[in-house]
Specification:
mainly beta; SH3 type barrels; five-stranded antiparallel β-sheet; 1 helix; 5 strands
Length: 127
């Protein structure tokens, strides 16, 4: 099976994790013309492996929650761009479905550049 599946697997997939905010560009065919439509949201789940791997993206559109499940190796996905890295402690973020408003925000992971130390300002002595 791996031999047959290997020729259909995409090689240039962007690395992303659960909690990341991503922008998925999907090819849409209308009346013979092809255009790209983007869907930006938070990755709440990844499932499967190999050719059948999927990921679920959730966003709030006009006050309604919208979720889309994309096959990772689908030819209709043009590109995946990571907008923000999320800082979460769960493998599935289904709890976001019950949240409303600002509660649906995922904390952003802050990474420091290698070799650069964080400089703390000097403390002032009380007078």
């Amino acid at each position: 099976m791996n031999l047959v599946e290997s020729k259909y697997l995409k090689k240039d997939i962007t690395k992303f994790n659960i909690g990341d905010t991503i922008d998925v560009a999907v090819k849409i065919v209308e009346e013979g013309k092809t255009r790209l439509q983007t869907f930006e949201g938070v990755v709440i789940a990844r499932a499967g492996s190999g050719l059948t791997e999927t990921f679920t993206v959730r966003k709030i559109s006009y006050g309604e929650g919208v979720e889309m499940v994309f096959p990772l190796h689908s030819p209709s996905i043009d590109k995946i761009k990571v907008m923000k890295k999320g800082d979460v402690n769960r493998a599935k973020l289904y709890y976001l479905k019950r949240k409303v408003g600002k509660e649906t925000k995922v904390d952003e992971k802050i990474t420091h550049a290698q070799g650069v130390e964080a400089v703390t300002p000097p403390r002032e002595e009380p007078k």
